[in-house]
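Good morning C.,

I know you're traveling, so I'll keep this short. The sequence:
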Amino acid sequence: MDNLWKSWDLVLTNLKDSIQNDRTFDTWIKPIKPVKIEDNFIYLEIPNPLFYKGISIFIENLKMAIFKTIGTPLEIKWIYPESKNNTKSFYFGEKLNPANTFDTFVRGQCNQLAHAAGIAIAQSPGIAYNPFFVYGGVGLGKTHLIQAIGSLAIKTNNCKVAYIPCEIFVNLFIQSIQTKTMTTFRNNFRSLDILLIDDIHFIAGKEGTQEEFFNTFNSLYGQKKQIVLTSDRPPKELFSLEKRLVSRFEWGLVVDLQPPEFETRVAILRKKCELKHISLDDNVIFYIAENIKDNIRLLEGALNKLIAISTLLNKKLDINIVKEYLKEILSSQNKIITIEKIQEKVAQYFNISIHDLKSSRRLKNIVIPRQIAMYISREKTNTSLTFIAEEFGGKDHTTILYAYNKLKKQLEQDSYLKTSVEKIINSL
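The C-alpha coordinates, ready to paste straight into the viewer:
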Protein backbone atom coordinates (compact mmCIF):
# COMPACT_ATOMS: atom_id res chain seq x y z
CA MET A 1 0.00 0.00 0.00
CA ASP A 2 2.92 2.35 0.76
CA ASN A 3 4.25 1.84 -2.79
CA LEU A 4 0.79 2.55 -4.18
CA TRP A 5 0.65 5.86 -2.31
CA LYS A 6 4.14 6.80 -3.51
CA SER A 7 3.13 6.01 -7.08
CA TRP A 8 -0.07 7.99 -6.56
CA ASP A 9 1.95 11.06 -5.57
CA LEU A 10 3.69 10.85 -8.95
CA VAL A 11 0.31 10.35 -10.70
CA LEU A 12 -0.85 13.63 -9.12
CA THR A 13 2.35 15.35 -10.22
CA ASN A 14 1.80 14.18 -13.82
CA LEU A 15 -1.89 15.07 -13.69
CA LYS A 16 -1.13 18.58 -12.40
CA ASP A 17 0.50 19.35 -15.76
CA SER A 18 -2.84 18.93 -17.55
CA ILE A 19 -4.99 20.76 -14.98
CA GLN A 20 -3.69 24.29 -14.66
CA ASN A 21 -6.29 25.63 -12.22
CA ASP A 22 -5.13 25.03 -8.62
CA ARG A 23 -8.61 25.38 -7.12
CA THR A 24 -10.04 22.83 -9.57
CA PHE A 25 -7.17 20.45 -8.81
CA ASP A 26 -7.64 20.77 -5.03
CA THR A 27 -11.43 20.46 -5.20
CA TRP A 28 -11.80 17.52 -7.59
CA ILE A 29 -8.50 15.65 -7.75
CA LYS A 30 -6.87 15.76 -4.32
CA PRO A 31 -9.78 14.02 -2.50
CA ILE A 32 -9.35 10.92 -4.71
CA LYS A 33 -7.65 8.09 -2.79
CA PRO A 34 -6.03 4.99 -4.33
CA VAL A 35 -7.19 1.73 -2.73
CA LYS A 36 -5.65 -1.10 -4.75
CA ILE A 37 -4.62 -2.33 -8.21
CA GLU A 38 -6.12 -5.65 -9.22
CA ASP A 39 -6.75 -7.41 -12.56
CA ASN A 40 -5.99 -4.38 -14.75
CA PHE A 41 -8.21 -2.19 -12.59
CA ILE A 42 -7.24 0.58 -10.22
CA TYR A 43 -9.76 1.10 -7.42
CA LEU A 44 -10.14 4.74 -6.44
CA GLU A 45 -12.17 6.05 -3.53
CA ILE A 46 -14.20 9.27 -3.87
CA PRO A 47 -16.33 10.90 -1.15
CA ASN A 48 -19.78 10.31 -2.66
CA PRO A 49 -21.67 9.68 -5.94
CA LEU A 50 -22.23 13.42 -6.45
CA PHE A 51 -18.48 13.91 -6.52
CA TYR A 52 -18.21 11.70 -9.63
CA LYS A 53 -20.13 14.29 -11.66
CA GLY A 54 -17.48 16.86 -10.90
CA ILE A 55 -14.51 14.70 -11.86
CA SER A 56 -16.03 13.04 -14.92
CA ILE A 57 -14.45 15.59 -17.29
CA PHE A 58 -10.97 14.71 -15.96
CA ILE A 59 -11.18 10.92 -16.27
CA GLU A 60 -9.20 10.66 -19.51
CA ASN A 61 -6.50 12.95 -18.09
CA LEU A 62 -6.39 10.75 -14.99
CA LYS A 63 -6.07 7.53 -17.00
CA MET A 64 -3.23 9.06 -19.01
CA ALA A 65 -1.41 10.16 -15.83
CA ILE A 66 -1.80 6.65 -14.37
CA PHE A 67 -0.46 5.08 -17.56
CA LYS A 68 2.45 7.55 -17.67
CA THR A 69 3.36 6.70 -14.06
CA ILE A 70 2.74 2.96 -13.86
CA GLY A 71 3.42 2.02 -17.48
CA THR A 72 0.29 -0.12 -17.81
CA PRO A 73 -3.16 1.01 -19.05
CA LEU A 74 -5.65 0.53 -16.21
CA GLU A 75 -9.41 0.93 -16.07
CA ILE A 76 -10.84 2.80 -13.10
CA LYS A 77 -13.36 1.42 -10.64
CA TRP A 78 -14.88 4.01 -8.31
CA ILE A 79 -15.79 3.15 -4.75
CA TYR A 80 -17.26 5.16 -1.87
CA PRO A 81 -16.14 5.13 1.78
CA GLU A 82 -18.01 2.82 4.08
CA SER A 83 -20.20 4.46 6.67
CA LYS A 84 -18.16 3.97 9.82
CA ASN A 85 -18.96 7.07 11.82
CA ASN A 86 -22.06 6.91 13.96
CA THR A 87 -20.95 9.55 16.44
CA LYS A 88 -22.19 13.10 16.66
CA SER A 89 -19.12 14.50 14.91
CA PHE A 90 -18.42 15.07 11.21
CA TYR A 91 -21.16 13.42 9.21
CA PHE A 92 -21.53 15.18 5.88
CA GLY A 93 -19.51 17.26 3.46
CA GLU A 94 -15.98 16.35 2.41
CA LYS A 95 -13.78 14.12 4.54
CA LEU A 96 -11.11 15.88 6.56
CA ASN A 97 -7.63 14.88 5.46
CA PRO A 98 -6.09 13.07 8.47
CA ALA A 99 -2.70 14.54 7.52
CA ASN A 100 -3.98 18.11 7.93
CA THR A 101 -3.55 18.62 11.68
CA PHE A 102 -1.86 21.20 13.87
CA ASP A 103 0.89 18.67 14.57
CA THR A 104 1.87 18.73 10.89
CA PHE A 105 1.24 22.46 10.38
CA VAL A 106 4.65 24.14 10.46
CA ARG A 107 4.47 27.48 12.21
CA GLY A 108 6.59 30.47 11.15
CA GLN A 109 6.40 34.26 11.06
CA CYS A 110 4.21 33.99 7.95
CA ASN A 111 1.36 32.19 9.75
CA GLN A 112 1.93 32.67 13.49
CA LEU A 113 -1.29 34.61 14.17
CA ALA A 114 -3.44 32.31 12.04
CA HIS A 115 -2.01 29.24 13.78
CA ALA A 116 -2.62 30.60 17.30
CA ALA A 117 -6.14 31.75 16.44
CA GLY A 118 -6.95 28.39 14.84
CA ILE A 119 -6.06 26.47 18.00
CA ALA A 120 -8.08 28.88 20.15
CA ILE A 121 -11.10 28.44 17.87
CA ALA A 122 -10.88 24.64 17.90
CA GLN A 123 -10.73 24.64 21.70
CA SER A 124 -13.56 27.17 22.16
CA PRO A 125 -15.65 27.20 18.97
CA GLY A 126 -18.10 30.05 18.59
CA ILE A 127 -16.47 32.02 21.40
CA ALA A 128 -12.90 33.01 20.57
CA TYR A 129 -13.12 34.50 17.05
CA ASN A 130 -16.29 34.21 15.03
CA PRO A 131 -16.27 34.23 12.09
CA PHE A 132 -12.63 33.39 11.36
CA PHE A 133 -11.63 34.56 7.89
CA VAL A 134 -8.28 33.39 6.45
CA TYR A 135 -6.99 34.71 3.15
CA GLY A 136 -3.83 34.33 1.10
CA GLY A 137 -2.41 33.21 -2.22
CA VAL A 138 -2.41 29.73 -3.70
CA GLY A 139 -0.61 26.98 -1.81
CA LEU A 140 0.03 28.81 1.47
CA GLY A 141 -1.78 26.38 3.78
CA LYS A 142 -5.34 27.76 4.08
CA THR A 143 -6.98 24.36 3.59
CA HIS A 144 -4.53 22.66 5.96
CA LEU A 145 -5.27 25.25 8.64
CA ILE A 146 -9.06 25.09 8.56
CA GLN A 147 -9.08 21.29 8.36
CA ALA A 148 -6.76 21.23 11.37
CA ILE A 149 -9.33 23.35 13.22
CA GLY A 150 -12.05 20.83 12.34
CA SER A 151 -9.99 17.82 13.38
CA LEU A 152 -8.97 19.32 16.73
CA ALA A 153 -12.54 20.47 17.46
CA ILE A 154 -13.86 16.96 16.83
CA LYS A 155 -11.15 15.44 18.99
CA THR A 156 -11.46 17.82 21.93
CA ASN A 157 -15.12 18.85 21.87
CA ASN A 158 -16.87 16.12 19.83
CA CYS A 159 -18.17 18.87 17.56
CA LYS A 160 -20.43 18.36 14.58
CA VAL A 161 -18.21 19.68 11.79
CA ALA A 162 -18.61 20.04 8.04
CA TYR A 163 -15.78 20.93 5.69
CA ILE A 164 -17.07 22.09 2.29
CA PRO A 165 -15.17 23.63 -0.64
CA CYS A 166 -17.40 26.50 -1.77
CA GLU A 167 -17.78 25.04 -5.24
CA ILE A 168 -19.39 21.95 -3.69
CA PHE A 169 -21.60 24.12 -1.45
CA VAL A 170 -22.92 25.78 -4.61
CA ASN A 171 -23.49 22.40 -6.30
CA LEU A 172 -25.30 21.02 -3.23
CA PHE A 173 -27.49 24.11 -3.13
CA ILE A 174 -28.40 23.72 -6.82
CA GLN A 175 -29.06 20.01 -6.34
CA SER A 176 -31.38 20.72 -3.39
CA ILE A 177 -33.41 23.05 -5.60
CA GLN A 178 -33.60 20.47 -8.39
CA THR A 179 -34.59 17.63 -6.05
CA LYS A 180 -36.84 19.78 -3.83
CA THR A 181 -34.82 18.89 -0.73
CA MET A 182 -34.09 22.44 0.43
CA THR A 183 -35.31 21.71 3.96
CA THR A 184 -32.78 18.87 4.33
CA PHE A 185 -30.04 21.07 2.89
CA ARG A 186 -30.78 23.84 5.39
CA ASN A 187 -31.10 21.48 8.35
CA ASN A 188 -27.75 19.85 7.54
CA PHE A 189 -25.90 23.15 7.58
CA ARG A 190 -27.78 24.92 10.34
CA SER A 191 -27.41 22.10 12.86
CA LEU A 192 -23.61 22.24 12.80
CA ASP A 193 -21.23 23.25 15.55
CA ILE A 194 -18.55 24.32 13.06
CA LEU A 195 -18.88 25.16 9.36
CA LEU A 196 -15.63 25.26 7.36
CA ILE A 197 -15.95 26.77 3.88
CA ASP A 198 -12.95 26.81 1.55
CA ASP A 199 -12.69 29.48 -1.20
CA ILE A 200 -15.77 31.47 -0.18
CA HIS A 201 -15.03 33.93 -3.02
CA PHE A 202 -16.45 31.30 -5.37
CA ILE A 203 -20.01 32.46 -4.52
CA ALA A 204 -19.29 35.86 -6.08
CA GLY A 205 -21.92 36.66 -8.68
CA LYS A 206 -24.21 33.80 -7.59
CA GLU A 207 -27.11 35.72 -6.07
CA GLY A 208 -29.23 32.75 -5.01
CA THR A 209 -26.31 31.03 -3.28
CA GLN A 210 -25.32 34.27 -1.56
CA GLU A 211 -28.83 34.68 -0.20
CA GLU A 212 -28.87 31.12 1.15
CA PHE A 213 -25.41 31.45 2.66
CA PHE A 214 -26.37 34.77 4.25
CA ASN A 215 -29.29 33.05 6.01
CA THR A 216 -27.12 30.06 7.00
CA PHE A 217 -24.48 32.43 8.38
CA ASN A 218 -27.06 34.33 10.44
CA SER A 219 -28.55 31.11 11.80
CA LEU A 220 -25.19 29.67 12.90
CA TYR A 221 -23.89 32.97 14.24
CA GLY A 222 -27.11 33.51 16.22
CA GLN A 223 -26.63 30.08 17.83
CA LYS A 224 -22.98 30.97 18.66
CA LYS A 225 -21.76 28.27 16.29
CA GLN A 226 -18.34 28.67 14.66
CA ILE A 227 -17.88 29.76 11.05
CA VAL A 228 -14.46 29.49 9.36
CA LEU A 229 -13.89 30.79 5.83
CA THR A 230 -10.96 30.97 3.42
CA SER A 231 -10.47 33.16 0.38
CA ASP A 232 -7.75 34.33 -1.99
CA ARG A 233 -8.25 37.94 -0.82
CA PRO A 234 -9.61 39.86 2.20
CA PRO A 235 -13.36 40.54 2.55
CA LYS A 236 -13.12 44.21 1.53
CA GLU A 237 -11.70 43.11 -1.84
CA LEU A 238 -14.51 40.66 -2.68
CA PHE A 239 -16.17 43.25 -4.88
CA SER A 240 -18.76 40.91 -6.45
CA LEU A 241 -20.16 39.85 -3.07
CA GLU A 242 -23.14 41.53 -1.44
CA LYS A 243 -22.02 44.19 1.04
CA ARG A 244 -24.02 42.63 3.86
CA LEU A 245 -22.00 39.42 3.47
CA VAL A 246 -18.68 41.27 3.32
CA SER A 247 -19.68 43.14 6.47
CA ARG A 248 -20.40 39.90 8.32
CA PHE A 249 -17.13 38.34 7.22
CA GLU A 250 -15.35 41.21 8.99
CA TRP A 251 -17.24 40.78 12.29
CA GLY A 252 -14.68 38.37 13.71
CA LEU A 253 -10.97 37.94 12.99
CA VAL A 254 -9.48 38.41 9.51
CA VAL A 255 -5.90 37.14 9.05
CA ASP A 256 -3.66 36.62 6.06
CA LEU A 257 -1.16 33.89 5.27
CA GLN A 258 2.05 35.21 3.74
CA PRO A 259 4.57 33.18 1.69
CA PRO A 260 6.93 31.35 4.08
CA GLU A 261 10.39 32.71 4.72
CA PHE A 262 13.45 30.50 4.01
CA GLU A 263 13.68 29.07 7.54
CA THR A 264 10.02 28.06 7.51
CA ARG A 265 10.39 26.46 4.07
CA VAL A 266 13.29 24.38 5.40
CA ALA A 267 11.22 23.41 8.47
CA ILE A 268 8.30 22.39 6.24
CA LEU A 269 10.53 20.16 4.11
CA ARG A 270 12.07 18.54 7.18
CA LYS A 271 8.62 17.90 8.67
CA LYS A 272 7.44 16.32 5.39
CA CYS A 273 10.54 14.11 5.29
CA GLU A 274 9.89 13.05 8.88
CA LEU A 275 6.27 12.15 8.10
CA LYS A 276 7.29 10.19 4.99
CA HIS A 277 10.14 8.43 6.87
CA ILE A 278 12.87 9.53 4.49
CA SER A 279 16.20 11.26 4.97
CA LEU A 280 17.54 14.03 2.75
CA ASP A 281 20.88 15.80 3.02
CA ASP A 282 20.71 19.42 4.14
CA ASN A 283 22.20 20.64 0.86
CA VAL A 284 19.26 19.03 -1.00
CA ILE A 285 16.69 20.53 1.39
CA PHE A 286 18.35 23.96 1.20
CA TYR A 287 18.43 23.81 -2.62
CA ILE A 288 14.68 23.12 -2.79
CA ALA A 289 13.87 25.79 -0.17
CA GLU A 290 16.03 28.40 -1.92
CA ASN A 291 14.42 27.82 -5.31
CA ILE A 292 10.73 27.37 -4.44
CA LYS A 293 9.68 30.40 -2.42
CA ASP A 294 6.03 31.35 -2.72
CA ASN A 295 4.03 28.13 -2.70
CA ILE A 296 4.02 25.44 0.00
CA ARG A 297 2.04 23.13 -2.26
CA LEU A 298 4.70 23.40 -4.97
CA LEU A 299 7.34 22.78 -2.31
CA GLU A 300 5.60 19.55 -1.27
CA GLY A 301 5.01 18.58 -4.91
CA ALA A 302 8.73 18.86 -5.64
CA LEU A 303 9.52 16.69 -2.62
CA ASN A 304 6.93 14.08 -3.64
CA LYS A 305 8.39 13.92 -7.14
CA LEU A 306 11.88 13.33 -5.76
CA ILE A 307 10.65 10.62 -3.38
CA ALA A 308 8.81 8.87 -6.23
CA ILE A 309 11.91 9.02 -8.44
CA SER A 310 14.09 7.68 -5.65
CA THR A 311 11.65 4.81 -4.95
CA LEU A 312 10.67 3.85 -8.49
CA LEU A 313 14.04 4.32 -10.15
CA ASN A 314 16.11 3.29 -7.13
CA LYS A 315 18.27 6.42 -7.27
CA LYS A 316 20.04 8.13 -4.39
CA LEU A 317 18.95 11.74 -4.15
CA ASP A 318 22.16 13.72 -4.40
CA ILE A 319 22.20 17.38 -5.40
CA ASN A 320 22.86 16.66 -9.10
CA ILE A 321 19.87 14.30 -9.35
CA VAL A 322 17.71 16.90 -7.60
CA LYS A 323 18.76 19.66 -9.99
CA GLU A 324 18.07 17.44 -13.00
CA TYR A 325 14.60 16.31 -11.99
CA LEU A 326 13.41 19.63 -10.55
CA LYS A 327 14.41 21.53 -13.68
CA GLU A 328 10.87 21.43 -15.08
CA ILE A 329 9.21 22.50 -11.83
CA LEU A 330 11.66 25.36 -11.30
CA SER A 331 11.27 26.45 -14.92
CA SER A 332 7.47 26.63 -14.57
CA GLN A 333 7.85 28.59 -11.33
CA ASN A 334 10.10 31.11 -13.04
CA LYS A 335 7.25 31.82 -15.47
CA ILE A 336 5.02 32.97 -12.62
CA ILE A 337 4.42 36.70 -12.84
CA THR A 338 5.39 38.50 -9.64
CA ILE A 339 5.03 42.15 -8.61
CA GLU A 340 8.81 42.40 -8.52
CA LYS A 341 9.03 41.24 -12.18
CA ILE A 342 6.25 43.66 -13.17
CA GLN A 343 8.05 46.59 -11.56
CA GLU A 344 11.28 45.60 -13.28
CA LYS A 345 9.66 45.39 -16.76
CA VAL A 346 7.71 48.65 -16.37
CA ALA A 347 10.82 50.47 -15.15
CA GLN A 348 12.80 49.15 -18.14
CA TYR A 349 10.05 50.07 -20.61
CA PHE A 350 9.78 53.69 -19.40
CA ASN A 351 13.49 54.05 -18.57
CA ILE A 352 12.93 54.96 -14.93
CA SER A 353 14.10 53.36 -11.69
CA ILE A 354 12.18 50.88 -9.56
CA HIS A 355 12.77 53.32 -6.70
CA ASP A 356 10.73 55.92 -8.63
CA LEU A 357 7.87 53.42 -9.07
CA LYS A 358 7.73 52.87 -5.33
CA SER A 359 8.13 56.52 -4.42
CA SER A 360 5.46 59.17 -3.90
CA ARG A 361 6.83 61.54 -6.57
CA ARG A 362 4.04 63.07 -8.68
CA LEU A 363 5.92 63.75 -11.92
CA LYS A 364 3.87 62.68 -14.95
CA ASN A 365 6.66 60.53 -16.36
CA ILE A 366 6.55 58.55 -13.09
CA VAL A 367 2.84 58.61 -12.19
CA ILE A 368 1.63 56.91 -15.37
CA PRO A 369 4.22 54.06 -15.27
CA ARG A 370 3.42 53.60 -11.58
CA GLN A 371 -0.30 53.29 -12.34
CA ILE A 372 0.47 50.85 -15.16
CA ALA A 373 2.57 48.72 -12.79
CA MET A 374 -0.23 48.76 -10.20
CA TYR A 375 -2.81 47.86 -12.85
CA ILE A 376 -0.80 44.89 -14.17
CA SER A 377 -0.08 43.73 -10.61
CA ARG A 378 -3.81 43.64 -9.93
CA GLU A 379 -4.61 41.93 -13.24
CA LYS A 380 -1.82 39.37 -13.44
CA THR A 381 -1.03 38.32 -9.86
CA ASN A 382 -3.10 36.48 -7.31
CA THR A 383 -2.41 39.01 -4.55
CA SER A 384 -4.53 41.37 -2.47
CA LEU A 385 -4.68 45.12 -2.84
CA THR A 386 -3.09 45.42 0.58
CA PHE A 387 -0.12 43.27 -0.47
CA ILE A 388 0.30 45.20 -3.74
CA ALA A 389 0.23 48.46 -1.77
CA GLU A 390 3.02 47.18 0.47
CA GLU A 391 5.12 46.36 -2.60
CA PHE A 392 4.71 49.94 -3.84
CA GLY A 393 6.28 51.63 -0.85
CA GLY A 394 3.65 50.88 1.78
CA LYS A 395 0.85 52.90 0.19
CA ASP A 396 -2.81 52.52 1.16
CA HIS A 397 -4.82 49.83 -0.65
CA THR A 398 -7.26 52.51 -1.86
CA THR A 399 -4.40 54.05 -3.89
CA ILE A 400 -4.01 50.77 -5.77
CA LEU A 401 -7.75 50.52 -6.38
CA TYR A 402 -7.90 54.12 -7.64
CA ALA A 403 -4.95 53.56 -10.01
CA TYR A 404 -6.47 50.30 -11.28
CA ASN A 405 -9.90 51.80 -12.01
CA LYS A 406 -8.44 54.95 -13.58
CA LEU A 407 -6.12 53.06 -15.91
CA LYS A 408 -8.83 50.58 -16.85
CA LYS A 409 -10.96 53.47 -18.16
CA GLN A 410 -8.00 55.07 -19.95
CA LEU A 411 -7.19 51.82 -21.75
CA GLU A 412 -10.65 51.91 -23.36
CA GLN A 413 -9.94 55.32 -24.85
CA ASP A 414 -6.17 55.49 -25.44
CA SER A 415 -4.89 53.01 -28.05
CA TYR A 416 -1.25 54.09 -27.54
CA LEU A 417 -1.48 53.41 -23.79
CA LYS A 418 -3.19 50.07 -24.48
CA THR A 419 -0.37 49.03 -26.83
CA SER A 420 2.25 49.94 -24.21
CA VAL A 421 0.52 47.88 -21.53
CA GLU A 422 0.17 44.90 -23.90
CA LYS A 423 3.88 45.07 -24.77
CA ILE A 424 4.85 45.02 -21.09
CA ILE A 425 2.51 42.11 -20.37
CA ASN A 426 3.92 40.18 -23.35
CA SER A 427 7.45 40.77 -22.07
CA LEU A 428 6.44 39.14 -18.80
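Safe travels,
E.
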